[in-house]
Sequence to fold (314 residues):
Amino acid sequence: MNPKFTEVEGLAWGKLLNVHSIMARRLEEMLQTRYQISHGEFEVLLRLSWASDNRRRIWELAETSVLTHSGMSRLIERLVKAGLVRRETATEDKRGAYAVITAAGLERIAAAEASNIELVKQHFLSLYNEEELKQMGSFWKRFLNYEEQLAKDETGS
Amino acid sequence: MNPKFTEVEGLAWGKLLNVHSIMARRLEEMLQTRYQISHGEFEVLLRLSWASDNRRRIWELAETSVLTHSGMSRLIERLVKAGLVRRETATEDKRGAYAVITAAGLERIAAAEASNIELVKQHFLSLYNEEELKQMGSFWKRFLNYEEQLAKDETGS
DNA sequence: TATATATGCTTGCGCACGCATTGTCAATAG
DNA sequence: CTATTGACAATGCGTGCGCAAGCATATATA
Fold:
């Protein structure tokens, strides 16, 4: 009833929080000042740019993000106002709408993604060698597999 | 001008974001439902409980957090309303104010911290052995040392 | 077909935040 | 002693978010 972290545990977890916080701040500041988009908007534009037909349903974008449906609805609204995305009502289901990335959006996200990758390489990845990066990846994979298993067990019960 | 992540890099960085996001959500939900506090409030209460005299200046709390001074001012206001903290104007400098954690606050934060540690152990730390946790810690230490060096270089120039 | 329920998105409301400004006090210069 | 400057905290305003409710459409049931 009186749990404590060992020193090693405290470093492994606590400093992870610090690392994330520093990198997240840096990335957000860069995206805002250079490209006038938030990190959430960045991720949405990225997903849209990956889509074969440059479009995704709004609920789908919400599911795979931190936001709720209403939050995503407003985020798309901002991107529409900025001319980076347009809405299209779905022909096969008139309740729904697609967010479609525009040419301006594609241009913006290509530049932003390049800056993003450069920044992460310079400030994070460059500090570790190939072997270490592999190990990091395996750590995260183990966690995410465990999470997936948890989710399955829950639906199964 | 067309940077890309290698597969290994993409895993080491991208999945780190996923891990953080999953854990952060879980922690915040737990703190909110069981203890009616946000993660930011949790961290402030924790700092106050560590302080020898159970008090810290408001600007000091702001500096070592994600918030600005105004944000911290309001966060303290909420904690005061909740009876977990009280304000005391600093006797040695009447411009300033201390946030002082109350008995109720100490009680709340002790329970919340225990839950927090348990949750992190169960869902994260338990997946790795001592050796692996040490390695993780060394990764973060390397990053944070590098950051510190950067900051020094900047002030030095 | 008629009715009930579910789904996809939007909107009203309240909350927490940052920015810019203000109020209050301290420190220093003349 | 007074004026100027600076530091700490509080506050007005705008923004983005979640929650809950609403609207339109789709699906299931009889």
